[in-house]
Structure formats: C-alpha cells, structure tokens
Amino acid sequence: MHGTSTEPDEVTVRARLLGPLELHSGGADRAPTTPKLLQLLAMLLIRPGKTVHVDSLVHELWNDTPPRSVRRTLHTYVHHLRRHLDPDGEGGLLVTSPPGYRLDLDPAMVDVSEFQRLHRLGRELLTGGDDAAAAHAFRTALDLWSGPPLASVHCGPTLAAYTVYLLEHRRNARDLWIEAEIRSGRHREMLGVLRSLTTADPLDETLHAQLIRALCLSGRRSDALASFHWLRARLEDELGVEPCAELRELHRELLSEGNPVR
C-alpha cells in the first residue's frame, strides 16, 4: 500500500565494495567522486565499525610522499567526507575516534561480510555432503560481485593488497561452486562454464582438472584426454613444467577402466 512507511529503508546505510564502491544512505548513493575522498572512504569501509589509525590513512593516501602538512590535509579530507556523507549534519556516520577515525557502520551492511558469510556456509555444506545447497550458497556469494573490487577507487598499498585478498577469496568460491555443482550431478551443465573459464585463463590447472572430470563424467573421455594433452603442451611450452599431481592422476584414471573420482 502507498501509505506504508519506508523510513527503515531510508535510514539504513549499506555499502558495496565488490565492484565500484557504493555507499547508500537516505535513498541516495553517498560515495564521493573526488579520488582522495573516495580512497579515504574505502579505507574506512574495509574496517567498518573499527578505528582506522591516522598513520594507516596517511600511508594509503600518500604512501612514501606525504605533503608537508599531512595531518592538516587529512583532517580537511575527513571534514569534506563527513559533510558529503551527512549533508544535513545529523547522521554522525563518520566519527573521530583517537588515534584515528571510524565509520559507525554495522559490518553486516557491507557486501564483503555477506560474501564471507555465504562462503563459510558453502564450505560447511560441502563438507557435510549437501552439495546442491553448497552450490547455491557459493553461487549466491558470487552473484554479489558486479566487477573487480573497489573498481572506482584509486588504490594505494593497503587497498591494493585488500583487493588481491578479495580476488583470491572470489577465486576460491568459484572453484568450490564448480566442485559442488559437479558433485551434485550437474557436470553436463557446467561444461559451457568451464570451457569459457579455461579459455579466459588457459593455465589455471584447477579449472582444467574440473573440466576434464566433467567431460569424463559426461561420457566424453576422448575430449577429456584431448583437454589434458592440450594443457600439458601449453604448460611445457610456456612455463617448462609438467601438469600438477592432481591432473597427472586424472590422466592415469582416464587411461584406465575406472572413472575419475567425484
């Protein structure tokens, strides 16, 4: 009904880091466009509800070349960011918290927290043998991503390291999602996904192992063998190495009467 109050949604603050940075409050995206302010906001958002030390902020924003009056400059940036986040001067989202600053924000309101929660849930379900539910949890976690993490932010040393951390977790979630789908019997449905991923990342041995397993489980043993031989030649030509132990074991299984382990 039109008369229903929407006040709870309007005052909720939510942030997105798994893509371009967004901070939604009062029905609007409050993320600034000024590069340094956006970088400062990102530093506060990666530790929501916790104090970020002034020295950490200075290191991120200026690395080894801070301006002469760096504390005053940082204070000015904080002042502008606070006004940008709270134009009415009522929210108090950005708090001075010696020896630094804090975003007074529930970590659960940041998409990274939800991604990590779903990632943990997927792993627990996979360990417990509930493969279909695990696949759903991982897929839901991956759907939170809209692009590279902090895509709109100029990243200094701390934020750059944080994006690497997030990308590694995304890669792990992707690999476990595929594993769960194969275990749940959806190996044929995953062939297109795996073909696309191995084309985009031709030296990723985990993806190739999953593709070979899915092909074999789908009754396409010759295609699975061809995929192994193609990867082995590529690894030898480009890196001068043999396929990993898991792939070599899969190759032995392909040449035997048995099927690869599920």
Automatic annotation (TrEMBL):
PROSITE patterns: OMPR_PHOB. Keywords: DNA-binding, Transcription, Transcription regulation. Residues 3-105 form the OmpR/PhoB-type domain. SUPFAM superfamilies: C-terminal effector domain of the bipartite response regulators, TPR-like. GO terms for molecular function: DNA binding. The keyword GTP-binding does not apply. Residues 3-105 bind DNA. It holds the Pfam family BTAD. Belongs to the AfsR/DnrI/RedD regulatory family. This is SARP family transcriptional regulator.
